[in-house]
């Protein structure tokens, strides 16, 4: 699926959600969790701010988990989409809550928010697990 098509699909999903998405501050999205975390891996946290990820670049190891935590306030919607990388995944579009992903493949992941795709990007480097 192309970058533009993913953006269109995300926008359609937001519009289809109706009132629940229109007032996310009153009913924040429930946390979304990835598959069970692999033994021995670390969890790293990334802030989802009003128009950026914090940090914007992160290096982890295979087996580690990244937990994105929404800190933006008000009606600001954000998500996490893979633009390129060894594995594709995406979070729901939400104004609050968390999203977690455990990484099983090494490589460089280029991530972006479909709501702010030119400004809100992140690079995630996943290295082979140390022995």
Task: Specify the structural class.
Answer: alpha/beta
Task: Estimate percent helicity.
Answer: 10-25%
* Elements, N to C (H/E): HHEEEEEEEE
Number of helices: 2
How would a textbook summarize the main sheet? 4 strands, mixed
Question: How are strands sequenced across the largest beta sheet?
Answer: 2-1-4-6
Q: In percent, how much strand structure appears in the residues? A: 25-35%
Alpha-carbon distance between the two ends: 36 Å
Mean pLDDT: 78
Instruction: Compute the number of strand runs.
Output: 8
Unreliable residue runs: 1-38
Question: Rough shape?
Answer: globular
Rounded radius of gyration (Å): 15 Å
Short recap of the structure:
This protein has two helices and eight strands. It has 131 residues and is an alpha/beta fold. The relative contact order is 0.24.
Structure in words:
The chain is of the alpha/beta class. The protein contains two helices and eight strands; from the N terminus they run ααββββββββ. It has a four-stranded mixed β-sheet, with no helix packed on it. The protein is globular. Residues 1-38 have low confidence and may be disordered.
């Amino acid at each position: 699926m192309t970058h533009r098509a993913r953006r269109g699909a995300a926008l359609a999903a937001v519009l289809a959600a109706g009132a629940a998405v229109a007032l996310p501050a009153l009913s924040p999205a429930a946390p979304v969790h990835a598959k069970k975390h692999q033994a021995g891996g670390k969890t790293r946290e990334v802030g989802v701010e009003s128009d950026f990820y914090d940090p914007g670049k992160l290096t982890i190891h295979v087996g580690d988990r990244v937990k994105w935590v929404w800190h933006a306030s008000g009606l600001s919607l954000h998500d996490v989409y893979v633009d390129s990388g060894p594995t594709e995944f995406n979070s729901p579009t939400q104004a609050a809550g968390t999203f977690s992903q455990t990484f099983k493949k090494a490589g460089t992941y280029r991530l972006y928010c479909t709501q702010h795709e030119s400004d809100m990007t992140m690079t995630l480097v996943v290295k082979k697990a140390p022995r």
